[in-house]
Amino acid sequence: MTHSNRMHNTDRPTDSETRSGDQKDERCPICLDPFKNKKQLKCKHEFCKDCLRQAQEATGPICPVCRVVFGKIIGDQPDGRMSDYTMPSFLPGFSDCGTIVINYEIQSGIQTEKHPNPGWPYSGIHRRAYLPNNKEGNEVLQLLKRAFQQRLIFTVGTSRTTGIEGQVTWNDIHHKTSMFGGPDRFGYPDPKYLSRVKEELKAKGIE
């Protein structure tokens, strides 16, 4: 009986054989049907061309499986102005260099179809942020400029601090709006901030 069971078990396909057989019937991870006009992204994930187009219309050029950005993301940030200058005073944790000061100005206006309440007004803002004036700080500055050009720094929504709707708010790319006070006060010192904000920018295709 034992010998018979062993013989029977050897007749079963191995896991590798099963996977090999499945590869002949590859399916789109979105619609779960066999591929139609298959398209492969740079991350090597594959989709039906129409499925990928619909996903891109919904969430932007982001792989639905691994979230790698495969195109240029354009946000819904209202028109505004970004400028910067340097000053000699240093930030806590960066005593060997001066400071980059970033100014953002977004004027008040009317919401578009991309915003929560098209046709309603929104209130503009003026925000100031700080970076160390060293090599990495300047790299982050250039990345932030690209993000601003792609309308990714701000959006229109509900203020997290006041709860008021129709406000220009930050859009998940964190800034240091104070020179001091540490992370709890959105300031320095914060040794991991520069690497953290670069990861946030990378998640939006800015690297």
For the structure shown, list the relevant keywords.
207 residues; alpha+beta; Herpes Virus-1; Enolase-like, domain 1; three-stranded antiparallel β-sheet; globular; disordered N terminus
Question: How is this structure best described in words?
Answer:
With 207 residues, the chain is an alpha+beta fold. The protein has two domains: 50 residues, Herpes Virus-1; 123 residues, Enolase-like, domain 1 (2-Layer Sandwich), CATH 3.30.390.130. Strand 1 and strand 2 form a beta hairpin. The protein is built from five helices and nine strands; from the N terminus they run ααββαβββββαββα. The termini are far apart.
CATH class of the largest domain: Alpha Beta
- End-to-end span in angstroms? 64 Å
Oligomer: single chain
CATH topology heading of the largest domain: Enolase-like, domain 1
* Form type: globular
* Helical coverage, percent range: 25-40%
On the 0-100 scale, what is the average pLDDT?
87
Radius of gyration: 25 Å
Helical/strand content category: alpha+beta
Contiguous uncertain segments of 5+ residues? 1-24
Strand order of the largest sheet: 3-4-7
Provide a brief overview of the structure.
Its main location: cytoplasm. With 207 residues, this protein is α+β, with helices and mostly antiparallel strands. The chain contains five helices and nine strands.
